Amino acid sequence: MAKLIIKQPGHFIDIEGMTPFRTPVKVNIPESAINKVVVHLAKLGIEDYDIVAHGHFKVHGKVVKEEINEKQEKVVTVDIEGVNTRLSKIESLLASLLGRSPEGLGKVESLLQQLLTREPKVIERVVVKGEEVVKDELEEPEDTFIPDVDVEGLKVKGEVMFKTEKREDISKTVEELRKMKENKT
Amino acid sequence: MVNGIEETQKRGTVAAGIDIGTMNIACARSDLDEIKMMRNVFLPINREEIALSELTDISFVQSDDGDIFIIGDDAFRFANIFGQKVSRPMERGLISPKEISAIDVLTLMVRDIIGDTKDKEVYCSYSIPAESIDEGRSVIYHEKVFARILNSIGVNYTAVNEGMAIIYSECQKERFSGVGISLGAGMANTCVAYKGVEVLKFSTARSGDWIDKSVSESLSIVQNRVTSIKERYINIEEGFASNSNKKIRRVLEAIEYYYSALVNYTIKRIIKEFEERVEIEVEEKLPIIVSGGTSLPKGFLQLFQSILRGHTLPFEVLEVRQAKSPLTAVASGLLVKTLVDVESLR
Q1: How far off is chain B from A5, nearest CA to CA, in Å?
Q2: Using a CB-CB distance cutoff of 8 angstroms, which residues of chain B are in contact with residue A12?
């Protein structure tokens, strides 16, 4: 999959075989469709866009950016919290040794053995060189993609006719729901 | 005990619920006895084709540049006169990306249907669909566009799942436990709730418009014509055979077939989603409430009950019933929620 990024607002892009969308947009496109997309954008006169994909190749003269995978590296760190937990367990076990009978010592010894010899847990993260990126975080859609409302120059004329239906008395329903929510908190 | 709604109004506060659907917009307010509805369509017309004097009894939007958009039910009537297709700000349950001018016109329609907000603190819940399980479109864009619209009007707003709104409106005696299914034009929204908490929610792209489109494709007739026949003649209880006109009978037969397919599909999805996503044991029997314009035809409820008997659900069903008012149940439920929220702000 490649990613098409168009920042300029106000375009409506309708390419055969793809769901139509408006700009600004960040949308996934199949790599097999990159050619078609570039041609379509050229027809619309849209030149300011980026396509981010695996590999590095030219399509109709437009250089496609490589995906940022090469800029990523795997960073391995020791789980410090896990180590601290183990140390405190060892501490409490040692403290209990002082009051133990010879028969009980064998079990404690065995537990200590396990804690001292277990390999520490490691945490693997993928970071982008120069900045930390936490994986699996949901990307919130940017507010720039939500069009502004502009009704400055618009006026409603004439009386707007509505169909109406009598509203039922909902006071008991409101009361029941309110009580239920209060009981939960 | 002081009535909570009266108390809210005394403080100059108004609670509202606004259901923005593919076909209709409905608004319920705490200070009004009636729920208002209008068609969620508009018709841009050419200034050269019509004089303003011809629009005296029509509601329309005019821009400073002179562009004219007829709104609501009038848009449908004029569309026939001008031989045009109405513009629908929403498509298959979500705000349409095609209608660039729609958002501004829709803002004015929403503002008008909410009504007077001058010198009032208005709190509003608005309906949003759940994520679709059979189509890739996200509802986030839709949710944020309407947040922006309501913000521009100057009301305080909260998004509420459409299916859950039906539970608020219809399931008081079951202590807000049940399955709410809103069968609108663009989408079917389902929500399973237990004691006022959403347990499962999802939407599917098969609903009223899907029936029309499927019949249109099967019989090679224009979709608008299918919609028109459906709205005028469909009677599932009596059956298509009761219609004396052969051509209409043919269309009605197809409509009934796709109605059965729609109900079957929706029930199967409920079973599948419940089994895959719900981990809690629901010991109580749950009512199933059907609502929305697509559930209006006579005999729909019996059809639903009949198809349901052929399936085994992962919970016990108390009963299947229709919302008291299928076109306004969502707006009513949203108003209930808003009133509870407003009271909790005290």
Answers
A1: 17
A2: 97-98, 100
Is B6 exposed, middle or buried, given 0-12, 13-18 or 19+ CB atoms closer than 10 A? exposed
Starting from the edge strand earliest in sequence, which strands make up the sheet with A25-29, in order? Answer: A25-29, A2-6, A50-53, A65-66
Q: What is the pLDDT of residues A55-90, one digit of tens each?
A: 544 444 454 555 545 455 556 666 676 777 777 777
Q: State the DSSP code for B20.
A: E
The answer to whether A178 contacts B343, with C-beta atoms less than 8 Å apart, is yes
A180 touches chain B (CB under 8 A): yes
| Contact (CB, 8 A) for B291 and B26 | no
pTM over the 0.80 mark: no
Q: DSSP readout, B267-324?
A: HHHHHHHHHHH--S---S-EEEEEESGGG-STTHHHHHHHHHTTS--SS-EEEEEE-S
Say what the ipTM of the complex is. Answer: 0.85
**Which residues, other chains included, contact B80 with Cβ-Cβ below 8 Å and sequence gap of 6+?**
none
Q: How far apart are CA A173 and CA B333, in angstroms?
A: 9
Rg, chain B, Cα only: 21
Closest CA to B321 of B302, B335, B307: B302
